[in-house]
């Protein structure tokens, strides 16, 4: 969510279907041109190494062929590229390329041609190390406080730190309690390595302690020695941050103070040298990468944090200073100086979208898509409106949200039970053992005041009673018409019914298609199911009823 | 193999991760069976349960509509203060004037069944980890695995009980020195409704290590225990430790808003914007605040900013339309509503738009259009009490008293917190001479909104009438 978008200064798309990750982007003056002009070095998981020197004539120009200084395919996937003083005896910058099982250090040099596109660049392998273990990532720096050269530390997938003093392998150490490799950084002020372990803790190991600890290779030899000899690798300090980290950066912009920045999955931490939290910020998005880049104001540090919703946020400590939209989700972000333009933001996405951009106030106004708007013909509209109004008025007359009162019922159904039993019994399939099962006629009348479509009548009585016909379907009813049907009710099964009530239900649609129902009840006489019998004096069972109320005389009950 | 297991656990968790702090809905069962109620009658300004305890500066319901719980509508839907489905923050700028009257969530568990919960996503290969067969003690002793496993159980499987067991074992194994485990135990207790226990855990965790999240969790516990003042103090304490932390300031602002102290809330929302000027919630809340304090032009500017930032949904255009209307920019009003209708995702949103259009129609005097708009509102959402009420007023004008009365009755049964239907019934009955009914309705209206002058006048008038008789 931002008003602004990153202004495109130079951008390109690298290769086809290549994959890139955090370590694949590096920005430095790798060919030692001395002009202080940074080059963009990109390595891909397909093994392509590319070096760019972006210099568009005007911002947003297309990529010129001569911007690509070098493209070589190395045999193995490139995990990480770094630039530093990696070759002994010289302080010029060299390029270190980390493969899965190999570390190579190259010298990059260019020969000037007569014209600009005649310039030639090549890389020369200075030295390489074959690795015993699969590498994950690396960091470099003046370990142990050496002057004028950089040493490399590689973290392997199984938690071993391998240290290289330039052309020679120094030693390897296993990190205690290791499970998965986390990001790794070197702090030159405290001379220690900082990583985030699988315990969700930031851990700091002194270089000194690493150097004197038991050699990892020996330790593997015998279990016995591991326990007895050498010092155990002791952690310098630990800070529990309670989440996994994406990246760690150690920076010191003003003398004397260095800060450890940890980008977690949900929070962003700034730690002091001794592992205390200087400040933290809860992020309400999921970040993808970050870089602390400079200190504009004394005592504060500015940081770029990119996130998965394609935003790049600029923070001064915890205060959001700027937010800008990016065209894609970056996996790595750097700040570079080109030509006469300083502080260009270089971003790389996982599918190889490399962009150099700057922050501009040109708003990327969100353009709401157009709602399809027709040319309005007022006369037609008016006519249509009138038509619709008419329909609405009609509709409001006949129907409403609120139910109408009973007397306005459109369709009424009435049932009439004849006073006498049928002279000729209509009973069919009766299971009653008695000689003649009586039946009674019920006359049902449907009266309709409006047109009713598809009316159907259902009559139901409780078993063991039954009707001769329980379903009737009629043709559509005209307004003010009526239908009458006649049916008979009888006792079907050989037991006494629980009730003598019956229901008839009419369902129909009114002309607008809304289904309606109306119903009525009728009650059947007792003589349908009972025969009169003579009172018996000598009974098997006797029932005596006492009452404190004056009883009704028998004559009233049995006339 | 452990490493791979760990990775997969983390990946699965990440797939469904929802920040627990934003996740909160009080089910109706929890509200009713609240055992934590300590004082039944809270002192003014110390509780969120009495809606009317505003200490000045709070708008009256005549100006700002209230939600069912009697709180003024905020400009932003967030779980637990409004009805609202648990939706992502950015998508949820709620229409003013029409807060969907909160339908209570039917059960305690209902609130936690959210789209993200994986236990509802069927996995073709069966569950990754079979919880019932897990030896929690074994895992608790491996801190590397335990944390990932805990998050998996808690977020992915949504099995709080097992998660709690694991956390309890693990914190014991860590000799109670790991603040992270304490926070997790606190989270579990919170889910299980054991707020006092949760509070203990969070406090203990804070003693070990100050973390923003812990402050937020603890404040949440206090809010649930209905101690907003304690929560406020806690937030302020947190701000001392982490100056400028947006989530903490925002928490303060929300509490003030819920306590009806709108001016303080706006103050804090402005602080939020000073720290993070892309904060959608703060912009929306300040905007709606301006709207209800009769400054639609300023509100319009806030909403326009949201639009420029890329918030593009029905609610925003709804708000824009209303602001335009009240700022007398009629040309923009209808096109905004047109867009809002176009963007409406469900019938409830459509109902909101039609309701607002009805308002506009009333405003410009086109009663026929208004009538139809309110009808359309009801077609889209047939328990929209406000629309029933307004429709009734229109019917009243037409002279259909029976219809009007029925509509008003529906309205008041749907939304007993609104005073308007009662008042309208009172007026209607008074007109047709049914003084007794008028009096009872007026009393109900007064109950819903004690400060309503018209109601009081009507009551007085009726009393005089009765005295004369």
CATH superfamily heading of the domain at 411-425 and 436-528 in chain A: Immunoglobulins
**Which class best fits the helix and strand makeup of chain A?**
mainly beta
Portion of residues within helices of chain A: under 10%
Helix content of chain B: 55-70%
Structural shape of chain A: elongated
Number of helices of chain A: 5
Q: Regarding quaternary structure, how should these chains be classified?
A: heterodimer
Strand content range of chain B:
under 5%
- Which class of the domain at 383-468 in chain B in CATH terms? Mainly Alpha
Low-confidence stretches of chain A: 219-230
The name of the CATH superfamily of the domain at 383-468 in chain B reads Tetratricopeptide repeat domain
Number of strands of chain B: 0
Gross morphology of chain B = elongated
Separation of termini of chain B?
Answer: 91 Å
Largest sheet of chain B: none
* Category by helix and strand content of chain B: mainly alpha
Word description of this protein:
The complex is a heterodimer of chains A (559) and B (469). With 559 residues, chain A is mainly β. Chain A is 8% helix and 44% strand. In chain A, the strands form 9 sheets. Chain A has a 5-stranded mixed sheet with strand order 1-26-25-24-23, with no helix packed on it. In chain A, strand 15 and strand 16 (192-196) form a beta hairpin. Chain B has 469 residues and is mainly α. Chain B has a domain at 383-468: Alpha Horseshoe (Serine Threonine Protein Phosphatase 5, Tetratricopeptide repeat), CATH 1.25.40.10. Chain B is elongated. The chains are: A mainly beta (559), B mainly alpha (469). Chains A and B meet through strand 22 and strand 26 of A and helix 1, helix 4, helix 6, helix 8 and helix 13 of B. Chain B: Residues 79-90 have a biased composition (Polar residues).
